[in-house]
Design goal:
Keywords: Transferase. The structure is a single chain. By secondary structure, the protein is an alpha+beta fold. The protein has 5 helices and 9 strands. It has one domain: Aminopeptidase (3-Layer(aba) Sandwich).
Length: 212
């Protein structure tokens, strides 16, 4: 699609393909959301979108991606990738930037279908977008945060070399909760072997960056 080059953008790792989802990918991603992302009684998200029934979770998944596409500007963008493992869509990995051309700071967020947990996939897909951030986009920092009880996300973050960067208070389901913030500087980033970015050049102007 000439006017939306993101559909050609992809990142590959030894096991995964990350790509901006097609409509068919969104259907499959909705299936993963419907199947379940986390155990009952636990909420890793500030907005509790996974509290709905399976059909509602699937619909909210598609709507989230539609909103990200429609709201993207050079000064405020979010790229939400479908993550494929052995040809199957298994989750989503996002990277976001606000005034990125000035701040050179990118945030990340993700979720993974519950039956794919515990296989190191979360680490590999985060490493993929860190490669995009630092090697592809010239980021100076990557930031992320997670609730203190989201042990899996915190483990991925620490494994990839982030440093603690303070805390933030939130209200989650009417209760005060703490998120731990983290920051990874470009000089502390360790490149993961075997990651390749394809067709990034045409996307750069839409992200506020020079394509030359």
């Amino acid at each position: 699609m000439r006017n939306w080059p993101f559909f050609d953008l992809s990142i590959t790792t030894p096991r995964l393909v990350l790509r901006v989802p097609s409509l068919e990918d969104l259907d499959e991603l909705g299936d993963r959301a419907a199947e379940g992302i986390h155990e009952d009684g636990f909420m890793p998200f500030l907005f509790p979108w996974t509290d709905g029934d399976p059909a509602e979770r699937a619909r909210r998944t598609a709507q989230y991606h539609f909103r990200a596409w429609g709201a993207l500007t050079a000064d405020d963008w979010a790229l939400e990738f479908a993550v494929l493992y052995e040809g199957q869509v298994i989750g989503t990995q996002g990277i976001q930037g606000k005034d990125f051309a000035v701040t050179r700071e990118a945030g990340t967020g993700s979720w993974l279908g519950r039956r794919f947990h515990g296989q190191g996939i979360g680490t590999e897909m985060r490493a993929a977008v860190l490669h995009l951030a630092f090697a592809g986009l010239g980021a100076r920092h990557a930031v992320t945060e997670a609730f203190e009880d989201n042990h899996a996300s915190l483990a991925v973050t620490r494994k990839l070399g982030y440093r603690e960067d303070g805390i933030r208070m939130h209200a989650r389901k009417g209760e005060p909760v703490v998120t731990q913030r983290f920051r990874l500087a470009a000089e502390d980033w360790s490149e993961t072997p075997g990651i390749e970015i394809r067709n990034l050049g045409p996307c750069l102007p839409l992200l506020g960056l020079d394509a030359s």
